[in-house]
Design a protein that fits this description.
This protein has about 600 residues and is of the alpha+beta class. The chain contains 18 helices and 19 strands. Helix 12 packs across helix 17 and helix 14 runs antiparallel to helix 15.
């Protein structure tokens, strides 16, 4: 079953078609997924950049609050004046309190503003004042490492000691005209309030995934989620040189407007890093891919399902097409089986496919040639059987004829009839050579003796003198030729060549010539008779002698050897007999090999 061409072609068609559709479906799925993923990532990154820009105003308002106080002229005059007193300290602190109050009322993002200075350490601090000794600030864990290298900056989420609230602060150093640090301004924003500016963005409402806010130096100022909820944050952050800060790992630290997939414990996350906003701050967002691309994957699976259904539906169609294409081959195989059984009338129909059309023509031509060849073989077999039958009939009672002829010979000698004895002797010799024990080839020498005996008998029978000359090289006389091939043509010359011709002498000449290069020999019989009628052909011959000789030559030697008869230019008929060269008695295998060759 699997070795049949139709099955192989159909299976190949189906497999190739299925592989092609599967490859197209999978490629379409991958292209669709990658394209959609990139589009989603780019869209999310665009929204993240917009959110970062929105935060720029909030950050600017908070930092401006501290900066406005630090550079205010009244503040500068207060801290430039060295002399203080109880009353003056009270007045200055009221001025500072009012200034802080006014600034705070203008900045709704600000939770509180505190001023830390030792200017009033000799005077009692009031509990409702916003002015504290620097000692309170120095007690915090974050202040010492923070203030080492900066005049102002942001302090990440920490607990406010006075209110015990979680705040994010902007700290600005106060410097007098002598360039001495005389205090610090700390602008506090409640951490929850600050993060609400992140949470209120459209991105957070849709995804609700963690944000990380990076300041100008790339330090993490705020995060919207706890690390326990998203351990992946620990993998992308590292402790900064200043221990109060963390920052992104070096691989992502300098990236802006960037997105990529990261992997943790066989789960993928989309990492988004925004472009710097006006304050050179950046936003970072980490989104689990499973949730983000859930709809995309669903569409991709639907696309693969459509491809699979298309493959299933295409199989019967491809099978029908393959069966239709191979149908002529099946018909040809069926026709070959009929030819094997001897049915040669099988014909293939024409086909619009050129190759099948050529095969059909060749098949029809082959069956026609086989039919003609079979008919020809049947005809040759019939001729062979007829020739053998005639040969058998000629061998009937040979010994009886030999004995009878010998008895006639001796009786004629008893009565002094030498002519009769000689004639009977020639006839007996002709019979012995003609029969030759049933063999088909005899030496040319015996064939010439057979012809000579016939001529001697004819000389005794005919009233006209007969001249018979033989010119055959001695080297040719040992070659083997089919027997009794000369006598029928000599008989025809005597019988028909001089019937209506008034001549004194019948002249018959027999010559022989050898052609080694053509591997053949030629025997020619020429008479001086009346010649052949005009347009004479072998089919006009009425006797069986010439036909018998030609059939035996073709049967034993091949059709390339034959007899040719034509009129001589001077007079009479010329008979040319072309035969192969046999230096020994040819065997049947030798004759078969020659005929096949």
């Amino acid at each position: 079953m699997l070795r049949k061409l139709k099955t192989i072609m159909v299976v190949c068609f189906v497999l190739v078609h299925a592989f092609f559709l599967a490859a197209v479906s999978y490629s379409s799925y991958r292209f669709f997924f990658n394209f959609t993923s990139d589009e989603i990532s780019e869209t999310k990154l665009t929204l993240l950049n917009e959110s970062a820009n929105k935060l720029s105003g909030v950050i600017k308002n908070i930092s401006e609050a501290g900066m406005f106080i630090a550079i205010d002229e009244n503040v500068m005059e207060i801290f430039n004046d060295i002399d203080t007193g109880p009353y003056k300290a009270l007045v200055e602190r009221n001025e500072l309190k009012n200034l802080v109050h006014n600034i705070s009322s203008l900045k709704q993002e600000v939770y509180s503003i505190d001023i830390y200075t030792d200017r009033y350490q000799e005077y009692p601090y009031l509990y409702d004042h916003k002015i504290h000794p620097e000692e309170d600030l120095e007690k915090t864990d974050w202040f010492a490492p923070f203030i080492q290298n900066v005049d102002n900056g942001w302090v990440p989420r920490h607990s406010e000691s006075l209110t015990n609230r979680e705040v994010i602060s902007y700290v600005h150093r106060i410097i007098n005209h002598r360039n001495d640090t005389v205090g610090y301004i700390k602008v506090n924003v409640l951490a929850d309030t600050f993060l609400n500016y992140l949470i209120n963005t459209d991105l957070y409402e849709d995804i609700q995934e963690p944000f990380i806010l990076l300041n100008t130096g790339g330090r993490i100022i705020a995060e919207t989620h706890k690390r326990q909820e998203f351990p992946i944050i620990n993998d992308i952050t590292v402790q900064a040189e200043n221990k109060i800060y963390q920052r992104l790992i070096p691989e992502y630290d300098g990236l802006t407007n960037h997105h990529q997939l990261i992997k943790k414990e066989n789960q993928y996350y989309l990492l988004l890093i925004s472009s710097p906003n006006y304050e050179q701050w950046r936003l970072v967002q980490v989104i689990p891919v499973a949730d983000l691309y859930a709809e995309t994957k669903s569409l991709g699976w639907k696309l693969l399902l459509i491809g699979f259904v298309a493959i299933m539906l295409s199989i019967p169609i491809v099978y029908s097409i393959g069966k239709w294409i191979t149908k002529p081959v099946s018909q040809m195989v069926h026709g070959m089986k009929k030819v094997e059984k001897g049915q040669f009338d099988v014909r293939m129909n024409q086909h619009f496919v050129e190759e099948y059309d050529i095969l059909a023509d060749n098949f029809n031509r082959m069956t026609n040639e086989l039919s003609d060849l079979i008919k020809k073989l049947e005809l040759e077999n019939n001729n062979r059987r007829e020739a053998e039958m005639r040969a058998l009939q000629s061998q009937i009672m040979p010994h009886f004829l030999y004995n009878t002829l010998d008895m006639i010979k001796w009786k004629s000698l008893d009565h002094d009839a030498d002519d009769i004895s000689n004639m009977v002797n020639k006839l007996s010799k002709m019979l012995r050579i003609g029969l030759s024990g049933g063999i088909k080839f005899i030496p040319l020498r015996d064939e010439l003796d057979h012809a000579k005996c016939y001529m001697d008998i004819q000389r005794m029978r005919q009233s006209q003198p007969i001249t018979y000359k033989v010119r055959v090289p001695a080297s040719m006389k040992d070659l083997y030729v089919p027997k009794i091939i000369l006598q029928p043509f000599i008989e025809n010359s005597i019988k028909h060549g001089y019937r209506h011709l008034q001549t004194n002498t019948m002249k018959i000449e027999l010559t022989g010539e050898l052609f080694p290069e053509q591997r053949c020999l030629k025997l020619m019989i020429k008479d001086n008779g009346s010649g052949l009628p005009e347009d004479w052909e072998f089919s006009d011959a009425q006797g069986i002698g010439i036909k018998n000789v030609r059939e035996r030559i073709a049967m034993y030697c091949g059709e390339q050897f034959d007899v040719n008869m034509y009129n001589d230019k001077m007079s009479g008929v010329v008979v040319e007999i072309v035969l192969p060269i046999f230096s020994e008695q040819p065997s049947l295998p030798m004759l078969s090999q020659r005929l096949e060759g």
